[in-house]
Write a structure and sequence with these properties.
Blueprint (H helix, E strand, L loop, with lengths): L2 H24 L23 E2 L5 E3 L3 E3 L4 E6 L8 E7 L5 E8 L6 E5 L5 E9 L3 H4 L14 E14 L21 E2 L8 E6 L2 E9 L9 E4 H7 L5 E7 L3 H9 L1
Parallel strand pairs: 3-9, 9-13, 10-12
Antiparallel strand pairs: 1-2, 2-4, 4-7, 5-6, 5-8, 8-9, 9-14, 10-13, 11-12, 11-14
Length: 256
């Protein structure tokens, strides 16, 4: 090869070696999505506020044992310090009722507390007290599209234990094969397949009735070993329990 050609080839390779890293550096790396946060079988950050269409916000516990006071906080669009606020709760009968009254503080937020009388699934929202009468209308169902609010579940206290070892491989009273993976509860009277929502220390799991029991005095449910593990029950404990609501529960009811 002619010397001039060799010089030209060497210059071209050198330019490529310099340009290649520059082009690579100019291309931003694709970010890697973070791994999902660990939690129970159902997990939502309870400190994250619900933001409504008008810009109002509301923070409340997603689940709580019946018997204590529920506390909610947030902001109401169009309100100013000193304005009266009504906290409304939509019960399972589809009626909005006034659960608590409070006032907007100097920082523009409100805090309200009340002690619910019944367990179950509620929807809560806050409005200016002057608008409360118009807001406390009856809606078709608790899932009506006009029922904008934050979901809150109040759980009945239930004494539970768990079982499994010694029964693996056997059929339950509801015809299920007991195993380490079987999710469910034993109950004395609820029909087989009835969905029950269980709550313990922020962990929530919805499971069917798969067996009969418990036969220990003072206990309401026997949890299968998989269910107990899912919500962190390791011994006889008091947790929260309520009949499940929603499409899954309705489907089970329709199939009976």
């Amino acid at each position: 090869m002619h010397l001039s050609n060799l010089l030209k080839l060497g210059a071209a390779l050198g330019a490529f070696a310099i340009a290649a890293p520059a082009a690579s550096a100019a291309t931003p790396a694709v970010p890697t999505a973070p791994a999902p946060a660990a939690g129970g079988m159902t997990y939502v950050d309870p400190s994250a506020p619900t933001v409504f269409a008008d810009g109002s916000t509301l923070t409340a516990p997603l689940g709580q044992l019946l018997g204590g006071r529920v506390s909610v906080t947030g902001t109401v669009a169009g309100s100013k310090p000193g304005d009266a606020i009504a906290v409304l709760a939509l019960d399972q009968a589809g009626t909005w009722t006034n659960a608590a009254s409070t006032a907007v503080g100097s920082d523009g937020t409100y805090v309200a507390t009340w002690k619910p009388a019944h367990s179950g699934h509620l929807t809560v929202k806050a409005v200016l007290a002057a608008q409360a009468t118009a807001a406390t209308r009856v809606v078709g169902t608790s899932t009506d599209s006009t029922a904008e609010g934050r979901a809150l579940t109040l759980y009945q206290r239930a004494r539970v234990t768990w079982y499994g070892p010694g029964f693996y491989g056997r059929k339950t009273a509801c015809g299920k094969r007991m195993s380490k993976q079987l999710l469910g509860v034993a109950h004395k009277t609820l029909p087989c397949g009835t969905l029950v929502e269980l709550y313990n220390n922020g962990n929530v799991v919805t499971v069917p009735v798969v067996d009969r029991g418990p036969f220990r005095k003072g206990t309401s449910y026997d949890l299968t070993s998989a269910t107990a593990q899912a919500i962190g029950v390791t011994a006889t404990s008091t947790i929260g329990a309520v009949r499940a609501a929603g499409p899954a529960a309705a489907a089970v009811a329709a199939a009976r």
